[in-house]
Design a protein that fits this description.
The complex is a heterodimer of chains A (165) and B (552). Chain A has eight helices and two strands. Chain A has helices at 12-15, 28-32, 42-47, 63-74, 79-92, 96-109, 114-131, 144-156; strands at residues 134-137, 140-143. In chain A, helix 5 (79-92) packs across helix 8 and helix 7 (114-131) runs antiparallel to helix 8 (144-156). The two termini of chain A are 23 Å apart. The relative contact order of chain A is 0.15. Chain B has helices at residues 30-38, 58-61, 100-103, 118-131, 144-147, 172-182, 234-241, 277-284, 302-308, 326-338, 346-354, 357-370, 420-439, 532-550, and strands spanning 7-9, 17-26, 46-49, 67-70, 94-95, 160-166, 186-190, 193-199, 206-212, 218-228, 266-273, 286-289, 292-299, 314-321, 378-386, 396-404, 410-416, 444-447, 482-483, 515-517. In chain B, a hairpin with a 5-residue loop joins strand 9 (206-212) and strand 10. The model of chain B has no long low-confidence stretch (mean pLDDT 92). The chains are: A mainly alpha (165), B alpha/beta (552).
């Protein structure tokens, strides 16, 4: 599951801010129970690939295999979060047709390396968000492309070539 | 009148003394003091009766105890105040007028609204503003020009900005006590508790009210006109309990007294993750305009409320900081040393400060130079949603069948209820804010698990708000925690028809000729705004009506 850090403490002076109510209600303690919060970069890191783009191995046989490879690299920095969200999206939105269409679109686009895949996902994500096309996955509000990419990446990890396992 | 004195303890009067005045105001809080002030110099003799004294005393305050059933609530004696100035002695000063949509009919919710439009209240809001020592009357987006922060292109069809201003806060008793003392035609009675209202045979006219001190001294007030201004719980309790020979209470022909109790609870319904929390907080958390703090929130525009079938809730950001940070350690250390205290763990705390001098310097820079509200390292940002409660007849104040106070009066029993529409409205707003923040790239938003993974208007966990997991009272980590605002509203609601409300558009108790009510108990709907400014505006309007049409 997505990491939930130890409940953070609320700064007293800031916490009073939230409402304080007409009669001096302080909601400072509320923030301490925000156990559903997550570290700042947890989710961002799940989508934003970490290291420099990796060139594809010449041995990658097919475009689909190449894409699966890139999808795995796309989420390599925070697999736990990516898998949690990917599996949650697969469980909540079992729409194989839409997922397949997204996969085929990516295959057709033929990203040669991780940088190109990130650009593709990034552009589609921005377009989704502009159109308000989002999905809620385990509470996180994601662009549909992001949700689908996480689902595809999760599946990709179960399609790892035998030699790689 | 009481000759030669303007502030009198009831215990100083002769037993059974009769006080004859033009106007008797029961309750010296924001509403009662405002009405009394408005009548200074009018030539009318006014008595202003306050249950408490000039200062808070335990015996008086214990009269505010009561039972709580239904949704959890704080002890009733903790969230009100019986002393001269009433609950203004404990308010935090946030001011906000109601939105037009709050008072208008909302057919999508089956709500009739107020018996008059928001525009009628506008001049009274503007008069109320200086009475609470707030700045110029500005609550619209024109404020943004003076906020000097980036305004992101939120979709105006999806979200609107809304603003609060801060009163110092004004303690009405302290602020206006001297003025009332100097007023020759105003008598303030202290330790004067209303225990009985005597009407004529038909019950349409108040003939006399009986006041009693905790020491048993009684006085009678005979007035041309009476105004009940004791707060959202007490107004209902007194109407139900004080009608001599009228077991159903006064003004209760339609069994509405005490019903439609409303509050402004709030929940943290999402957390926001961003690499630059200050950027978000500096724009939308709080800002100083003309040296006064302002709060900023997001609402659904009225068109969106109608489209989604929701109430007028509001969402605000809240900063969660790391208590272990060097900046927090420095701040705590500074405050203690300034008070002359040397903490026993001085060494570790100094070490904590030294561990991140850069962070401490940044905090100091933000506080001292930039004047920002959030100066310490931010660990998370919460999204707090405050409810515009749907009026609910089953949410009510009744009289306790068993409990009585020191004066022998039945204590109130609060049975507060929340509705499915309440939950749905807050969910819809939280999701809309989440969508817009995500769309604009201002942060990643995680909705509380109780809301589920749906983006339509469906529910997540049914009943997450109605469960009433009150902060500090319940351990329910899977449910969002509720905090209260201690805003008590709606129990003597205003409506044109006696079948729909307890008082009419002029605040007169339906079916009675000389009995009026004032305060937030009159609100037929309450929006999300803190009620004090509206209480004062309504009181000013009632004072105008009394002078022009009643006290003649």
């Amino acid at each position: 599951m997505v990491q939930a850090p130890a409940a953070p403490e609320v700064d007293q002076t800031i916490g009073q801010s939230a409402d304080e109510g007409e009669a001096g209600v302080s909601d400072t303690a509320c923030g301490r129970r925000m156990a559903f919060s997550a570290k700042r970069r947890t989710v961002l890191g799940a989508l934003v690939a970490g290291p420099a783009a990796l060139a594809l191995s010449a041995s990658t046989a097919s475009s689909e295999a190449r894409l699966n490879h890139l999808l795995r690299r796309l989420v390599a920095r925070d697999l736990a979060t990516a898998w949690a969200l990917g599996r949650a999206h697969l469980a909540a939105s079992p729409d194989p047709a839409a997922l397949h269409a997204r996969f085929q679109a990516l295959v057709a686009a033929g990203p040669r390396d991780l940088a190109e895949l990130r650009d593709l996902v990034g552009t589609a994500t921005a377009e989704d968000l502009e159109r308000g096309e989002v999905a809620v996955v385990d509470g996180w509000v994601l662009a549909r492309t992001e949700a689908k990419s996480l689902a595809l990446a999760t599946l990709a990890w179960w399609r790892v070539p035998r030699s790689s396992t | 009148m009481v000759e030669g004195a303007t502030f009198v303890d009831l215990n100083e009067l002769g037993q059974g003394q009769l006080i004859e005045v033009d106007l008797a105001i029961i309750g010296a809080g924001a509403a009662g003091i405002t009405i009394a002030r408005a009548l200074i110099g009018s030539g009318r003799h006014v008595v202003l009766a306050e249950s408490g004294g000039l200062d808070l005393e335990g015996a008086n305050q214990s009269l505010d105890d009561g039972e709580v059933v239904g949704v959890a609530y704080d002890p009733l004696a903790a969230c009100r105040q019986r002393s001269f100035g009433g609950t203004t002695n404990m308010w935090t000063g946030w001011c906000k007028p109601l939105d037009p949509v709050d008072m208008a009919p909302r057919p999508w919710l089956g709500l009739d609204g107020w018996p008059f439009g928001r525009e009628l209240l506008q001049p009274y809001y503007e008069q109320a503003q200086p009475l609470v020592d707030a700045g110029p009357y500005r609550y619209d987006t024109s404020l943004w020009a003076d906020i000097h922060a980036p305004l992101h292109p939120f979709d105006p069809r999806a979200l609107g900005l809304t603003f609060w201003q801060k009163s110092p806060p004004t303690r009405f008793g302290l602020r206006y006590g001297d003025e009332l003392k100097r007023a020759p035609d105003i008598t303030v009675l202290l330790d004067a508790n209303l225990v009985e209202i005597t009407t004529d045979l038909e019950g349409g006219r108040v003939e006399r009210s009986t006041l009693r001190s905790l020491r048993g001294r009684e006085a009678f007030v005979r007035a041309q006109t009476y105004v009940l201004a004791c707060g959202g719980i007490e107004n209902a309790r007194l109407l139900l309990a004080c009608g001599r020979g009228r077991p159903q209470g006064l003004g209760n022909g339609s069994d509405l007294v005490g019903r439609f109790f409303m509050e402004h609870p709030h929940w943290y319904l999402a957390s926001i993750v961003t690499d630059n929390p200050y950027a978000l907080l500096d724009s939308y958390f709080r800002r100083t305009v003309e040296d006064r703090p302002h709060r900023i929130g997001w609402c659904l525009p009225p068109d969106a409320q109608e489209r989604l079938g929701t109430l007028n809730c509001v969402a605000e950001l809240s900063a969660v900081t790391d208590r272990e940070s060097a900046s927090n350690a420095a701040s705590g250390l500074w405050h203690q040393l300034r008070e002359g205290e040397v903490p026993s763990d001085l060494g570790p705390r100094v070490a904590a400060v030294l561990s991140d001098l850069g962070g401490v310097a940044q905090s100091l820079w933000r506080k001292a130079v930039q004047g920002t509200f959030v100066n310490k390292p931010v660990d998370a940002i919460g999204l707090m949603v405050t409810l515009d409660p749907r009026p609910n007849p089953d949410s009510r104040v009744t009289l306790s069948p068993t409990e009585r106070d020191a004066l022998g009066m039945p204590r109130p029993c609060l049975d507060w209820r929340l509705s499915a529409e309440d939950e749905r409205s807050m969910e819809a707003l939280a999701r809309q804010v989440a969508l817009e923040l995500t769309r604009l790239g201002l942060g990643r938003v995680r909705l509380h698990p109780a809301l589920g993974d749906r983006l339509d208007d469906g529910h997540g966990s049914e009943g997450w708000a109605r469960a009433g997991h009150l902060r500090g009272y319940d351990i329910a980590p899977e449910a969002p925690e509720m905090s209260l605002s201690w805003h008590h509203m709606g129990t003597t609601r205003m409506a044109a028809s006696p079948r729909e409300g307890v008082v009419d558009a002029n605040c007169r108790v339906h079916g009675m000729t000389n009995f009026f009510a004032a305060g937030s108990s009159l609100f037929p709907t309450s929006g999300h705004a803190n009620p004090t400014l509206t209480i004062v505006a309504l009181a000013l309007r009632l004072a105008d009506h009394l002078q022009a049409d009643v006290l003649v």
